[in-house]
Write a structure and sequence with these properties.
Blueprint: E1 4-5, E2 11-12, E3 15-23, E4 27-34, E5 40-46, H1 52-67, E6 76-77, H2 83-87, E7 95-98, H3 105-109, H4 120-139, E8 142-143, E9 152-156, E10 161-165, E11 172-173, H5 192-195, H6 203-218, H7 232-245, H8 264-272, E12 275-281, E13 286-292, H9 298-309, E14 343-346, E15 353-354, E16 360-362, E17 368-370, H10 371-374, E18 385-386
Parallel strand pairs: 12-14
Antiparallel strand pairs: 1-3, 2-3, 3-4, 4-5, 5-7, 6-7, 8-11, 9-10, 12-13, 15-18, 16-17
Helix pairs in contact: 4-6, 7-8
GO molecular function: ATP binding; IkappaB kinase activity
Pfam families: Pkinase
Keywords: ATP-binding, Cytoplasm, Kinase, Nucleotide-binding, Nucleus, Phosphoprotein, Serine/threonine-protein kinase, Transferase
Length: about 375
Amino acid sequence: MNRVPLQQPQTCGPWELKERLGTGGFGNVTRWQNKDTEEQIALKQCRQELSERNKERWCLEIQIMRRLDHVNVVAARDVPEGMQRLVATNDLPLLAMEYCQGGDLRKYLNILDNCCGMREGSILILLRDISSALTYLHSKRIIHRDLKPENIVLQQGEKRLIHKIIDLGYAKELDQSSLCTSFVGTLQYLAPELIERQKYTVSVDYWSFGTLVFECITGFRPFLPTWQPVPCLLTERLEKWLQLMLKWSPKERGKDPNATPSDCFLQLEMILKLKLVHVLNMMSAKILIYAISDDETVASLQLRIEKDTNIPAANQELLLEAGLVLEANALASQCAVDYMVIFFYITAVSLIRSTNFDLLFHFPLGGRWTTDRLSSCVSVRLLLLHL
């Protein structure tokens, strides 16, 4: 959560508003402190503009929170007297919770020391705490359905940090059939059966838990597109250049007598002059990379794509990020502007129609690929394509 400093103090009896902690799924969260006892609470307030369904979820979250009691699930607190009238902007109840001063797990992951993953000891503590919390919730027949680093907060205990699950706004109480079908949660951590709107059980929390643990170990989420940070066309050239720059002998460093040109910076200039086109194949969700010449046409590029994908050139439709269709006789070099990565989309013309949204891709086998799953690699707006 992003914390916002206060410009003017606000009080309710002995309670003083200290800061705005941020915004959760359904409402704003603020930190209050009792001037007499030093006790602190986090107060969550429902937003007025929520739909009726989400207002029901809000009330359900409060009901669930008030009956839970586990060290690794954030505890509900009594709302201080008079605060409902002072703070609430609607007739929905407030939710008071214990305040955890360590922030959320996302903040912890963003620390420089954790950019390539957390320390082993920290991961083992996380595993113990969150598995205990999930076991408890599931024993109460509750599925969290939105487990992610932002919904795990840290509290300093007597001997170590304690992880606590928060934000039960999407929690679901299991009915007698123990199967649910509603679609909720955060896309990066959603189990496949949720995305496909199939019936699901508590195992959706296992998927989310496994995904966030993977991220804590490695520093990145699994299931990203198969796109290397450095294109394979550049890898060999850059490896040779780096070997040149990192030679042990000062006299040999930066020079290659067997290459033309031999000077390291002239060789680098040749690498930088390469014009690369990045093509996102919508049928396989893979990125293809081609080095092109100044006079190469789009038609020539389509033939190369056909060879790699078995998609006939006649059935290809190449789109710029703005949605413009490239003509076959146009120069392909217009797609490689300086160092900006421009993506194309290969589509089967007879199957796909386009609209002006940018939310979801549909695939022939009924699977789905969300723009969010590409966000770590693709920095352009994406076009919504429908079969």
